[in-house]
Amino acid sequence: GQQVMQIPQYQHVQEGEDFTTYCNSSTTLSNIQWYKQRPGGHPVFLIQLVKSGEVKKQKRLTFQFGEAKKNSSLHITATQTTDVGTYFCAGSGYSTLTFGKGTMLLVSP
Amino acid sequence: DTEVTQTPKHLVMGMTNKKSLKCEQHMGHRAMYWYKQKAKKPPELMFVYSYEKLSINESVPSRFSPECPNSSLLNLHLHALQPEDSALYLCASRGVGLAGKNEQFFGPGTRLTVL
User: Residue B43, preceding bond cis, omega within 30 degrees?
Assistant: First the structure.
């Protein structure tokens, strides 16, 4: 079955530093979604990438989908304490999501 | 209304109890999901309902019994659970047939502790 690997598992940065999390799939993805889960919260949808080589930006967040549609990344520029949480990528099938293990981001002021 | 609600927020039950978790959405979504999430792990899919019919059961033990009474409601009936079933139970919904829009909307979850 489809597997989605995500690294790193955990990252601790100082406020203002950049952060990147990477996802790799064992198979070609039709699309990939990203979710953020704050501590004690629930996953919240951030974005969906569909096209090969697609790049989308949301303020300080930049999402990329690889040319082969097997990998994706999320980059946060100049992290803030509000960015704390776990970021999950998820490969989207017909009706289900295959989640990566997530990257927990901790930001120190 | 873009919200998925879940009750109760917290639940403590013994191994012989019977309880139910409830989920509700009024976005007109026709796909609804139950997930189980352990600490520091991703959500793990349990069940998928599509148009009120069970479409996916990820080999979940029969002590978990889902029910979809109508297009807005999703229940999860619990009976004879084990302590290892303690987890955050998340409900999610998704619009069906909406071109390019298949994100899932998650509820806040029910934190279940089985003693």
Answer: no
